[in-house]
What does this fold into?
Amino acid sequence: MSVLVFAETSEGKFKKSAFEVTSYGKKVAEQLGTNVVVLAINSSDPTLLYTYGAEKVLNVLNDSLKTFNVKIFANIIKQAAEKENSQVVILDSASNSLYLGPNVAVNLNAGYVTNVVALPSSTSPLTVKRKTFSNKAFNNTILNTDIKVISLAKNSYGLIENEVSGSIEEFSPSLVESNLTSERIEQTTGKVTIADADIVVSGGRGLKGPENWGMIEELAEILGAASACSKPVSDLGWRPHSEHVGQTGKPVASNLYIAIGISGAIQHLAGVNSSKVKVVINTDPEAPFFKAADYGIVGDAFEVVPKLIEKLKEFKANNA
Amino acid sequence: MKILVCISHVPDTTSKINFTENDSKFDSNGVQFVINPYDEFALTRAMWFKEKQGATVTVVNVGNVSTEPTLRKALAIGADNAIRVNTEATDGLAVAKELAEVVKNGGYNLVLAGKESIDYNGGMVPGMLAALLDFSFVNACIGLEIDGDKATISREIDGGKEILTSNLPLIIAGQKGLVEEKDLRIPNMRGIMMARKKPLSIVEPVNNSPATSIASFEKQAAKSACKLVDNVDELISLLHNEAKVI
It folds into this structure.
């Protein structure tokens, strides 16, 4: 018996969420009275996982796996789960893992739950709490199958250090055939992505035009944040669709979300509600975002943001 | 090309979410139901293939009779016919198994769905359906072109996009980008009249035992009031000392 965690890598490096799922998997294994095994594909330094409690790491080194393929990767996870006799398989919520989950579940005949936000509240039957109704509610879901697959929501458990002296095992799974071919990847380089960002700075229609985005980007840069925008802004073509956050855009689950000139339509809030701390800057004290935010400044973005940039520069200089 | 579009029947985004029967069931009282917004992107792309490439478009829902107005709306938007699998949609895997039967029996070679429903947010049915049928599958799809038997698909990835190719059959889970929001269609009167005469067939389920079940629901805890601050110094101090996020 074991708990299997899939730790996603990007160009050999673990994503932050890989450490989060390892931390989580270690604790679930403790609850079940078993061990955690972490599967990594082409990791350049699998020992990094020891810090988060990985007792055993299966590292697959294979150049033909440098390109992601859903069917091939899902089958590798299946082979690892069978080899380790895993009762629970844990994935993160990065785009590749969400793509893999359904395939892994079907091929292991497993029940599958996504958006999980906490440790199992019961191990028999295994019961987990998950977000539902676009972050407006939770449900407690029971998994009735022998094998269970869980996708942990981003930033819901955190990184928990739990140093162990682990071991690494080379693992050479067989590779299945796939009809799907990756032709190319177009990466937006040099910028913090919304999916990975700890802080997101987002602008709305209150900024009046695309020419005013300089201060949003400057603020984001000082904070090491990703920049984002509301739906009307991307619809108006002021900013690219890839920056649109909200219900039909990208979900945000950052530690800090700063909304500038965004009124807070219900669709927007549904997409950003999972952020831990929300700040709103808006001229209209009646804007619905003030009801959802933790901190707010009623004021004109064109006055508040430049001051915030200036003071944050001082703050960063003093706290460096 | 025979296209199947999977339609979820979901509460409108602005609905108040309440639970009933000791927090064990969603309270649909007074709730307006709509086509799942992600599925609308899929349906709109299907209409484009129908109009430009002569595809036939069937819409399908797994649900009880109360979902039929949502299927009629999809017919009013332009789908040719509809299928309702007559069972409660309880669990992603059970729904995927019902849909797999529909795909096998109907010989569809392209299945379009939304990447998740805005009610249960499972995000698993299209991928499970593909795994059950061993069809190619692309999640978070933001672009789809079909030329004969060959599909070119764009998928959103963290920080960019990936371009993929595959032969049909293919299943995609779509989102905004598959079509633009401005291209979404509102049914017109003629469409609504025609939809009444279009075939909506009811098929009995194969009835799988669900892999998961919901024990209870909880609403989001009431949030403490927003702290209004007067100046940026105070804000920075609160974010640093109280919230500890900077």
Q: What stands out?
A: DSSP finds eight helices and 18 strands in chain A. The mean pLDDT of chain A is 95. The longest strand of chain A covers residues 35-41. Chain A touches chain B through 92 residues (CB under 8 Å).
